[in-house]
Amino acid sequence: MRIPPLYKQAGWQRFLVGFFLGGIISYFVYLFMYGTLYEEWVKEKAEMEGTIHDLERDIEVLKNNNEEINELKQEGMVIDEITVQLETDENLELDKLIEHELKEAIKEEARHMIGRSVNGAVQSTPLLLGAIENKEYELEGFRYKVAVKQLIISEILYLTVTVEKAI
């Protein structure tokens, strides 16, 4: 008995070529999907680590100033949280990870405001603005300067800053 020579038939050749091309295309689709999911996972992990870091720092500050905070809360409002919003130029395209790291760096500069009364924070506003605006933030080989566009002081300190590349 003899095996028929299938390599001479064009239908089988097309089938095998299609099979291999389909395998290659599906491998690239798999790589794209895996890369996208991995990027989302890294972004989510960075955000969660930032949140954990913020909460740990807040706990430290609140533990250290517990008595003062209780007295201040009886007198008036106290700053509990810092929120930073970035505004960028159309030419400056920031990656989500860089945006997150820049927000964390700005929050770190303003961290001393947590636990202070609103009245005390209003008095030290020029110091806060100077500390944030006069610093150049270096992230992944690039230097950025920020300018505070809007500052709202209440129980949550809202900062809106514009970001530009430093020369």
Structure description:
The longest helix is centred in the N-terminal third of the chain and has 55 residues, at 10-64. Helix content is 56%, strand content 20%. The chain contains five helices and four strands. The relative contact order is 0.12. With 167 residues, it is α+β, with helices and mostly antiparallel strands. Strand 3 (142-153) and strand 4 form a beta hairpin. It has a four-stranded mixed sheet with strand order 1-4-3-2. The protein is elongated.
Short overview:
Helices cover 56% and strands 20% of the residues.
Layout of helices and strands, plus pairs?
Elements: H1 10-64, H2 66-75, E1 81-88, H3 96-109, H4 118-123, H5 125-133, E2 136-139, E3 142-153, E4 156-165
Parallel strand pairs: 1-4
Antiparallel strand pairs: 2-3, 3-4
Please report the number of helical segments.
5
Reported for the largest beta sheet, the result is: 4 strands, mixed
The helix-and-strand class reads alpha+beta
- Please state the overall shape, judged from the principal axes of the Cα atoms: elongated
- Share in β-strands: 15-25%
Strand elements, count: 4
Terminal CA distance? 81 Å
